[in-house]
Design brief:
6 helices
């Protein structure tokens, strides 16, 4: 009888550890995703400023190109995260936004290399709207964290 009670207690303890691990994984994911969205929002603000400056300053155009490359790395890093089950839908939504952002960045970099980037085209592109949509996912992430 003592063996059964000990076995039951051990199983109960192990399942509790699994639950705590799931909670920790979810909180870690929420923190990383929130940080990514904040960085993306900061990037969107910087891109607007740099694009406006690049019209008259070649150094700003070079900095804009560098920031676009950096954002590509941030996107790849975020997309490589393994979300916990509870966050899979949100992760897929963010990945969808990331695909749109990535395509706009690729197009912008190609146009920069060809000397054909129209800065007002960049500012009025789907890129800025997608960053706004990405920012709106913060509410969903905050609900996961609570």
């Amino acid at each position: 009888m003592k063996k059964w009670i000990s076995l039951f207690a051990m199983l109960l303890f192990l399942s509790g550890c699994s639950f705590l691990e799931d909670v920790n994984n979810t909180l870690d994911y929420v923190n990383e995703a929130t940080e990514y969205i904040n960085e993306a929002s900061q990037f969107a603000n910087e891109v607007q400023t740099l694009a406006e400056q690049a019209a008259s300053d070649p150094n700003a155009l070079a900095e804009l190109e560098e920031r676009l490359h950096m954002m590509q790395g941030e996107i790849e890093e975020f997309n490589s995260l393994n979300p916990p089950g509870i966050a899979e839908d949100i992760h897929q939504t963010i990945e969808g936004y990331n695909q749109t952002i990535q395509a706009a960045i690729d197009s912008s970099l190609e146009k920069i290399e060809q000397g054909q980037l129209q800065l007002n085209e960049l500012l009025n592109s789907e890129l800025m709207q997608t960053f706004e949509n990405l920012q709106n996912t913060l509410n969903q992430l905050e609900q996961l964290g609570n």
